[in-house]
């Protein structure tokens, strides 16, 4: 019987977790700034952005703790499309900010 190994004994999972936390924080701050504007479009867009930031932070937290506690042979929790989601959100956020700036 072979002993169980941790998926990655180094600091890479922690660095990835911290990077996703920074990404979620930056998206959340931008969403909060959008909520400051008085238009319905900007507040709605800001609330959706804040919700996505919370989901990204939660998924990063879950992923980090699943990689720390499961052996290599186990099935690791994946964040399906997290990179594509955050990229699409950043593009939409940029378009939304420009739209809010042009309508204000």
TrEMBL record:
The chain crosses the membrane at residues 40-60, 81-102. InterPro entries: DUF202 (IPR003807). Residues 8-69 form the DUF202 domain. It is a multi-pass membrane protein. GO terms for cellular component: endomembrane system. It is found in: Endomembrane system. Keywords: Membrane, Transmembrane, Transmembrane helix. This is DUF202 domain-containing protein. It comes from Saccharomonospora viridis (strain ATCC 15386 / DSM 43017 / JCM 3036 / CCUG 5913 / NBRC 12207 / NCIMB 9602 / P101). The lineage of its organism: Bacteria, Bacillati, Actinomycetota, Actinomycetes, Pseudonocardiales.
């Amino acid at each position: 019987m072979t002993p169980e190994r941790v998926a990655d004994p180094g600091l890479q999972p922690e660095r990835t977790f911290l990077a996703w936390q920074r990404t979620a924080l930056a998206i959340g701050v931008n969403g909060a700034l959008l909520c400051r504007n008085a238009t319905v479009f900007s507040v709605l867009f800001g609330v959706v952005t804040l919700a996505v930031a919370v989901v990204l932070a939660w998924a990063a937290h879950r992923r980090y703790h699943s990689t720390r506690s499961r052996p290599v042979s186990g099935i690791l929790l994946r964040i399906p499309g997290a990179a594509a989601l955050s990229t699409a959100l950043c593009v939409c956020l940029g378009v939304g900010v420009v739209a809010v700036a042009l309508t204000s």
